[in-house]
Structure formats: C-alpha cells, structure tokens
C-alpha cells in the first residue's frame, strides 16, 4: 500500500514539474518578442507578431523600452468587445506623436488578440492598442494585429468596464502598472 501511494505521489510531482516547464517555456519562448504587462490584478503575457506587423512590433518595443506605457490607463473598455489603452492623455485622443503605416493581415480578431487602435485613416496607428474579449470579425483586415495574449487574459477580463452609453469610456480607469520586453527582465 505504501509503495502505491509513493508512486502516485511521484507521478503527481513529475506531472507538476512538466506543467511548470511548459508554462515557463510559453512565457519565454522568444523573450525579444514577448511583453510582460503588469496590471493591478496580475501579469499579462503578450506574444508579439513581427511576422504580421514588423513596424508595429518595432515601435511598440521602442515605446515599452522608454517606459511610455507605465501608468497609462485602459480608458475605453466595452463589455463583450475589447479593452483599449495606450493613450498618454487618457481620453482616446493622444499618442506618442509618431504614426505607423497600416500592416493589415488575415489574422482574425479573436479573444486575446492585440491590435492597433486608429482613427478613420488606416495609417494613423500610434501608441494606442486594444485587446479583444471575443471574436470580432468586422475588425479583420481593418486593424493591424501585432500580438496576442498567451497568458493572463483573466486579468484583462477584470478591467473596469466603461459606460455602454458613452462608447465604453471608463470613469476612474484601471492602469498599466508596468510594461516590459521579456528580454529586458532579469
């Protein structure tokens, strides 16, 4: 009886070690193209997609390394649709001052996709981005997909929702605590 219990314990321990190894690999599979976005509720890991949007990924990494996103809000959050942040003015009108030409792809906007916000001009993406809560096919081919959440989507889902009658504008919005490129984190 003791031997059987010991075998079950060892099997469970080995299984746990395997799960932890897979989780660690998922976080650091490509540290140069992985972002750690820390929110009040926890860490969100974003896998950037330079294969889809090389100019956007390069600019996002540049801004992250300047600590541009630290403390910025998710100023627009629409239940069942998306959470938008990255505006230094906190109202949807600001940016870093450098537009990025559109890099549209066939990548679908499904839960966890990170895409660039823009005005009606396709080449007006700057620093604002949004994370999709659920499949949103009307965005496909219209907005630049530059990443996807691979871990911590539950924390994105905890962001304070905005007023549905005010296009999702959030009163006292949640903030990005810090955002870092994984390669830069010790």
What is the CATH fold-level name? Cyclophilin
Q: How would you describe the shape?
A: globular
Which architecture does the CATH hierarchy give at level 2?
Beta Barrel
Relative helix content: 10-25%
Are there runs of 5+ residues with pLDDT below 50, and where? 9-27
Helix/strand structural class: alpha+beta
| Number of H/I helices | 3
CATH superfamily: Cyclophilin-like
Number of strands: 8
Order of helices and strands: HEEHEEEEEHE
* Number of self-contained structural domains: 1
Order of strands across the widest beta sheet? 3-4-6-5-7-2-1-8
- Average pLDDT taken over every residue: 90
Q: State the major sheet.
A: 8 strands, antiparallel
Tell me what portion of residues adopts beta-strand conformation: 15-25%
Rg measurement, Å: 19 Å
CATH class: Mainly Beta
**Through-space gap between termini:** 46 Å
